[in-house]
Amino acid sequence: MNCESCLTGTRGCVKSSSERVLEMKAVVQRVASASVEVEGRTVSAIGPGLLVLVGIHDLDSPSDADYICRKVLNMRLFPNDKSGKTWDQNVMQKNYEVLLVSQFTLYGILKGNKPDFHVAMPPDKAKSLYASLVQTFQTTYRSDAVRDGVFGAMMKVNLVNDGPVTMQLESPQSSSNTRDGVEAESTMNGK
């Protein structure tokens, strides 16, 4: 998608190369409980575990979803009650739950005082990639332990933070995107 501030017309759709947005994002919160309401009705709820807000970039792929799933499920954000170690166990070892919520606003860029979401994947494409991400979590962990919100709906997300513990995670650049970025920088620098 091109705009006047793009460097490459691809993933790097912001004003400077140091600010380029290049990957799927997740904000992971350790919770005592969390739920999602749509139109006054609770559609998903979990007890102890992780609330994961997911932002999908316009050029994200299933490999980005696989990376986010693997990292979230293996993050050692929970204490080990037996050993007393604080950051020792992941959500699967604790047999806790995961609540996934699609949140395109993670790709918001302020233009003046107004947010612009042009680097987020359009809803028609993002819906299938998000569904694939949910499926990957359910297959990798346990389907009964993974819940999600309603894609594209106006949601009220309720949570009781545990800690609080909040981590930000981004999938790595693919080699083709890195190459595109290097070529764009070379072009900009006249090389």
Mean pLDDT: 84
Oligomer: single chain
Q: Which blocks of ≥5 consecutive residues have pLDDT under 50?
A: 1-21, 175-191
Largest sheet, described in full? 6 strands, mixed
Strand content: 25-35%
Radius of gyration: 18 Å
- The DSSP helix count reads 3
- Along the chain, the helix and strand elements come as EEEHEEEHEEH
Shape: globular
Estimate percent helicity: 10-25%
Distance linking N and C termini: 24 Å
Structure class: alpha/beta
Task: Describe what is shown at a glance.
By secondary structure, the chain is α/β, with parallel strands linked by helices.
Please provide a written account of the structure.
This protein is 24% helix and 30% strand. It has 191 residues and is of the alpha/beta class. The longest helix is centred in the C-terminal third of the chain and has 18 residues.
Considering the chains and any ligands shown, give keywords for the structure:
191 residues; alpha/beta; six-stranded mixed beta sheet; two-stranded antiparallel ribbon; 8 strands
Secondary structure: elements and pairs:
Blueprint: E1 25-38, E2 41-46, E3 49-55, H1 62-74, E4 97-102, E5 109-111, E6 114-116, H2 123-140, E7 146-148, E8 155-170, H3 175-188
Helix pairs in contact: 1-2
